[in-house]
Write a structure and sequence with these properties.
This protein is an alpha/beta fold. It has 14 helices and 12 strands. The chain has a single domain (7-379), classed as Aldolase class I (TIM Barrel). The protein binds flavin mononucleotide. Residues 25-26, 39, 77-80, 107, 109, 127, 155, 254, 276, 278-279, 281, 308-311, 330-332, 335 line the site of flavin mononucleotide (FMN). Glyoxylate binds at residues 25, 129, 164, 278, 281.
């Protein structure tokens, strides 16, 4: 782990560990991957304006969110089928987040019963992919509440499946179809075959989708690829209001990119939104969340606005907080860590970001993340200082 100095180092190591088709599933973006690139280049528009001669000998990045105090403003975004990257991936991610004291959002496309993951990290959040059928959503919400989970995230940017050509070329699909390319790729990574594939089969059997609905779903390996997203295309704001009535805990809507939709989320009774383009994996060409963030914060100043997509450095996190985000989530960085060294690797990814946040707070001349504001940023497409 010592040689892993940055998230980019972890990404390179993950590439060597994972079969190419699974690595492609993790890194890939939709179609031409223009949103994927924009998620990174969006940060470059903002430059820091450091303030010297400020006492930065003591620094803090502790952040309160929905009544809990976390060690850092960076948590783990929901990601499906983490068990493809590492044995017991869902619980390993949860334990990593718990160890570092940051939020972890379990994906609805996960393969470990949510009750089991919640016992590894009782404070975890759960992300649901809800179909428009209320007779299916209702029992799922009851199940999540019965597990003691207090924050429900509903992802709204996947009405239907996008096309990620890297996955099609690699013969990868969810559920997995055992294609020749998939098998050959697995054989090219013997360590993954033993530590992840074989260990999962021997100790846990074929993973199933455990949390799409209130009851156990099908296995992730099938002869044909089915659309587990069926029924979501008809989902609308009325359904969100209905979910709000059913769910007594905190409700977060993930996948918001327009200020009016942040207002719609607030009007539907949501407690927070995650500004996200799904890491560039859904609508290609969708605006980068870091670009959309300022106008969303301005539209719902009373709401908890969080953001993900493209965060790889502590400085990226500082920029988002300065633009008004309350919290940042990362997806792939944690998955790279998981692929390289399981729980220890995910902890390393989170700690790398925390270390960079701490160091750059000092260099910026702002001792506390709570004190960040636009006064520390200069927008390269505007003239003068934006304080
Ligand atoms: C492999 C992978 C699987 C994902 N699965 C889900 C999912 O099941 N539910 C969801 O809401 N978002 C999912 N996402 C999107 C992430 O929650 C998050 O929005 C995105 O990864 C953030 O971008 P980043 O990876 O650049 O940090 C997934 C992302 C990746 C990379």
């Amino acid at each position: 782990m010592k040689a892993m100095l940055s998230i980019a180092d972890l990404e390179r190591a993950a590439r060597k560990r994972l079969p190419p088709s699974i690595y492609g599933y993790v890194i890939g973006g939709a179609e031409d991957e223009s949103s994927l690139r924009a998620n990174r280049s969006g940060f470059e528009r903002w430059a820091f304006v450091p303030r010297p001669l400020v006492d930065v000998s003591k620094r803090s990045q502790e952040t309160e969110l929905f009544g809990r105090r976390y060690a850092s403003p960076v948590g783990i975004s929901p990601m499906g089928v983490t068990s493809l990257c590492r044995f017991d991936g869902d619980c390993a991610m949860a334990r990593a987040a718990r160890e570092v004291n940051v939020p972890f959002i379990l994906s609805g496309a996960s393969t470990t019963p949510l009750e089991k993951v919640a016992s590894a990290y009782p404070g975890m959040w759960f992300q649901a992919y809800v179909p428009s059928k209320r007779e299916v959503i209702g029992p799922l919400i009851q199940r999540v509440a019965a597990a003691g989970i207090e924050t429900l995230v509903v992802t709204v940017d996947v009405p239907i499946a996008s096309v990620r050509e890297i996955e099609v070329r690699n013969g990868f699909s969810v559920p997995l179809r055992l294609s020749g390319r998939l098998v050959m790729g697995g054989l090219s990574r013997p360590r993954w075959m033993v530590e992840t594939f074989a260990r999962t089969l021997v100790q846990q059997g074929i993973p199933h989708f455990e949390n799409f609905t209130a009851t156990r779903g099908g296995p992730i390996i099938t002869a044909t690829s089915g659309d587990h997203r069926a029924g979501r295309a008809a989902l609308c704001w009325d359904d969100m209001r209905w979910v709000r009535d059913q769910w007594k805990g905190k409700l977060v809507i993930k996948g918001i990119l327009h200020p009016d939709d942040a207002c719609n989320a607030r009007n539907a009774g949501a407690d927070g939104v995650i500004v996200s383009n799904h890491g560039g994996r859904q609508l290609d060409g969708a605006i980068a969340p870091i670009e959309a963030l300022p106008s969303i914060v301005a539209a719902v100043p009373d709401m908890t606005v969080m953001v993900d997509s493209g965060f790889r450095r502590g400085t990226d996190v500082l920029k988002a907080l300065a633009l008004g985000a309350r919290f940042v989530f990362v997806g792939r960085p944690a998955m790279y860590g998981l692929a390289v060294a399981g729980e220890r690797g995910a902890v390393h990814a989170l700690k790398l970001l925390q270390k960079e946040i701490d160091l750059n707070l000092a260099l910026l001349g702002c001792p506390d993340t709570a004190g960040l504001s636009k006064a520390y940023l200069h927008c390269s497409s505007a003239s003068g200082y934006s304080s």
